[in-house]
Each structure stands twice: as C-alpha cells, then as structure tokens.
C-alpha cells in the first residue's frame, strides 16, 4: 500500500522500493526490528503530508532539516538557526514606501562573509543537481525565494519549506489539463511557468525555466556583493549564462550539467583552501 501511494505522488521509479525501506526504518520508532500497528498508523498519518515525504527524500543528502520525532501528523525537525537565506522583513506599512532597488540592496546588508556565502550557494546548487533526474525522479521548485531556505552554524544550506517542491510528473499532469488564452495562464505555484498552445488552448507541459536558472537568479546579488575582484567578472558571466537557461531548449541536459559544474568549480576554487570549505 505504501508503495502504491508513493507511486501516485512521485510517479513510476525503480528506486521507490528503497524509499519504502527508508520509511519502514523511520516507522520502527522503538528500534525493535518490526513495525507495530500503532507505529504504522502514526507513520501513515505523517506521510499524508507531502512536505514530510519530500523532506525524507532529501534528508540523506543534508538538504532538509533532519526529522527528529513525530506522533501522527505532528512532527519535529532539527532547528535551522539562520533564515531566511537573505533579506529583511520590513513592517508592512514600509514595504510600499521602499523602492524595489533599495529593498534589493537592503536584502544583502546582513549576510555572512563572501567565502561563507559561496559555501551556502554551493549547497543550493547541489540541491538543484540532486533533484534534476535524481534517484526518485525529477522535481521542480515552484517558489525559489530566499524565505524558503536557511543555513546552519556550519553554513550548510537547508530547504526549510518543502511545500514549494513538486514532482515533475505531477507538474506535467496538472499543466496538461489546464486551459489557457495566454502564457500568463500557464503557471503552477509561484514561478513554474509553461507556454500556452494557442491552437489547442492548452498549456504545454515543458517548464520554461529550469530550477538552475531560477537558483542562479536568486543567488546573483547574493554572490556578486563582496565577491573577490579577480573573480567577479567571470562569476557574473557564469551567473547570467545560467539565468538564460531555458527548459525547452535543445541539448538542455548537457548545457545544464556544463553550467552547473563550471559554477560549482569556480566557487570551490575560491574556498577550497579556507576553513569555510570544511563539511
């Protein structure tokens, strides 16, 4: 039953059986080697929440806060001491009075040193890499805002709101039945867009911008502010190339991997000799 439920949410994938094994391990709360009926009921209630299931998928890679305990649909995860990733929460009366350019600049005022920002940014790039044709299929992040991320005392990135993730199979099924007049009608969540087929008046299923392009857009100001002068020009070029990625372009998989690897290598060269590189 557990396997069929996960297949309905994540699609057909040969690795789902190993996910079920991981869930059974979590369900065995008293570590006696078997799952009792109360444990099974409690775990079943927990897994009805998609954000918990997605958090478990990414937990082993360190992308989400560790699940510490649960009872039914109540659960506790490790504390993420720093969040959001960047930005200031202005009182609502001030928001409309502060120009957008000034607010973007203010967002970068209280951030860590640049090598630490580079390490945090690599965590986001690795998250994007792991959910792009990962072991349990592909996922889209449909609200890639700084508010949904935080980081630990060791400057390791954590996705603190897994509700913004959606399996790509589910995204495609949803878009396939969506009627449209213009491209503006073809949106899932906050920023997962497709284009409108004006002849069929149906949304196409191919996302316009991949996760990587949106991640680089979120990191652009964050990484360029305070970047070493010898690095800044090359970093800026790579970030803009990354932001220009399109999901429906030919050879997208190869281009995606090339840009991702180049950007990670550039950041790693700058911090590999510092204490901030330690995991």
From TrEMBL:
Residues 44-244 form the FAM69 protein-kinase domain. It comes from the Eukaryota. InterPro entries: FAM69_kinase_dom. It holds the Pfam family PIP49_C. This is Family with sequence similarity 69, member A. It comes from Nothobranchius korthausae. The gene is FAM69A.
